[in-house]
Structures are given as C-alpha cells and as structure tokens.
Amino acid sequence: MRTPTRPRSSGAALRRRGPAPLFLLPALALLGALVLYPIGWSVVRSLYDAPGTGFVGLGNYRTAFTDDATLTALRNSAIWVAVAPALVTGLGLVFAVLTEKVRWGTAFRLLVFMPMAISFLAAGITFRLVYEQDPARGVLNAPPPPPPDPFHPAPSSPGARPRPGGPAAAADGAVRAAPAAPGSAVAVPLVGLKPATLPAAAKPAAAPAAGDGVHGTVWLDVTPGGGTPGTVDPGERGLPGVTVRLLDGQRQIATATTAADGSFAFPGHPSGTVELPASNFAAPYRGLAWLGPGLVTPAIVGAYLWIWAGFAMVVIAGGLANLPRETLEAARMDGAGEWQIFRRITVPQLAPVLGVVLVTMVINVMKIFDLVFVVAPGPVQQDAGVLALRLWLVSFGGGNDQGLGSALGVLLLLLVVPAMVLNVRRFRRSTR
Asked: Where do the ABC transmembrane type-1 domain residues begin and end (predicted)?
C-alpha cells in the first residue's frame, strides 16, 4: 500500500518559488530611512552643543532636567497622562453604553464622532474662540443675561471714574464732591467711559446752574480732539440714570437720579455733600480667564476630550457589541440592577478593550503638540507647554538649540516606548 505524501507547506512552496525576504527589502529600507536613521541621528545629535560642533556628552540631558520651562513641560505632560486618557476612556464608555439604550443611538454616535473629522488646527482655532475672555465673543463667557434685580440694579456708568482735579474718589469706590454752599451748582465730570457705551437716552450735557437748593450735572467730560477739563464743552453728553445722594456729614438726607442731560437737583436742601455711590460704577462682567495661567491646561484638556471622546466611544461600542448577552440576561433574571450589571459584568468583560483605548490615549497625549500650540496664547504658552511643544520651541521656535531639542526628543521617545510595548503585547494576546 502506498503511503500518502504530506502536502508541502506554503512556506516551502514559497521558498521554492524564490527568496521571500527580497520582498521585504523595500519596506525595510523605508523603515530604516524614515524611522531608524532619524532616531539614531537624534541620539548622536543630543550629545553635541547647539551649533553641533562641540561634544558635550550628557550635558543637554542635565540642562533638560534643570531648566524651569522644561520642568514645567514635564509636569504638564504628567498631568495630561494622568487625566486625559482616563477621562476620554470614561466618556467613551458612558457614551457607548448610553447609545445602546437611546432611540436615536446612531445619530448620537455620529454627532459625538464628528469632531474626529476636524484637524487639531481647526479644533484649536475653534476653542480659542470658545475660550475668548470677551463675553461678546467667547461662548463660555457669554451666559444668558440674569433677570432684573430690583434690589441691586445694573450699574448706570460701569467703569467710570472722576476726572483728575475734580471730585474725589472715596475708599469704597464712591465719588464725593466738595460740600456745596447754599444755592451753588456742583459739577461732576467723569471719564473712563467710551462714547460708544453711553446710554441711548443720553443728551447733550446741561451746564451746572445754581438755583433753589443743590443743583448739579454729571457728564462724560471727554471731547475728541480737545476740550476744557472740568467744563461742559459742546458735544459732551450727560450721564442719565446715575444715582446721586445728598449727605449731611455721614447721614443721607436726600437722593435723586440724573436726567437725560445729566442734571440733578435737591430742591429744599440748601447745602450738603453730593455723593455718587459706588454702585453706579461697578465694573462690567469681563469674563473668566479660561486661557490664563491657572486654567489654560484644563481648558486645552477639555478641547482634547471633545475631539477624542468619539473615537473611544466607537472602539468601546465595538467591544460592547461582542459581549455575550446571556450573562447580562442571567444577571437581570437574578434581580441585578442596571448599575450592578454595568459595574460587575459589563466593565470587567470590556477590560481588554478599555485597556487598549487607555494605552492608545496615553501614547497620543505624550505626543500632543498642535492643540496646545494653537489654543494657548503666547504669554501663557510656557505655562501650558508640554514636552513635544518644548522640543519644537527649543529646536525651531526661536531657541535654535538642536542639541537640547534632540535630547528632549530622545527623552520623549523613552517615555512613549513603554506604553507602545504594552499596547503591542495586549494586541498579541488578543489575537491568540
């Protein structure tokens, strides 16, 4: 009886047809030219000074760990690694679970994933406007107007101040004129307001005129191109709606409100001290400094979450769709609540997928550059700096020290490699 011959393996057949490694040479050549050679040259270059002519050994690495700006970048990079990947993974998990329970889950996933189609440059410009401190431009600093408060009315002349040489500003922010003699007129010239911000009801200011009681005028003492300080010039407008008090020492004896031409009067009161309370000049809301030194890093992390939460949601939703439904139904039949099922069954079974997303985000945030560069204004860019941004600034953004920049690049590579190795191991375990 003839013994059947074993079929030859595909590898043997391939070797018989020709040397297979030859087909790998183009890919290996590209890998060496685009990856291995730059890494090796960066390691060598990091051992030389800025011009590249003097060998300094590990001097650039010592400089990297003693420079304040670099230490700030390392601290911010650590904050990014500790916060951003966990938040992105958590939001992606929440979105993936919720989209299975809402009616328009597909449309919701599309909306959440849509920011992934936007470049970091465009997203940075968008969030630069969102975080704008001016309430007229920044979305986050433009809340809906509060309802009118009869006990604390809006200031009539926000930001105004007395003209030097005129009435004095008290310690509490009020404006207090000199005591008025019987039948005298009190002039209260103010500055600090832009003519465009004057109330629409403002009319040309009335010159202070004496009369029965205490009279006076409150006006914006600004004339484009000249004018006499402390005098009502043609074209200057009164400030309507300003609260004026008449004091006898520290006791209030009367109150009035300025007319459209800024005039006021206290008939029947021959003398007293005219005071404009500080409530007339309360500064308007200027917005929260989202891009200030204290909040710039959390603000940029928020922009990062907006972009990458959709990616995490899609990956986790794919893992969620492959979960065995029998365990979930069995838990519901045993009386487990949705929170218990989520915490004790869904999350443990999704642990491999969550780990892949988390490690991928760690690698991603270690290399974050363009979002920080675009969103952070120049004066606070060092406060928001990360390692990749510091590398660019040192090498090409004005520092012109490519020795130190190469050292920072090698340091960044050493920090990213462990996460890459962990991700590759997870991938190999999942494919077995």
From this structure: 74-423
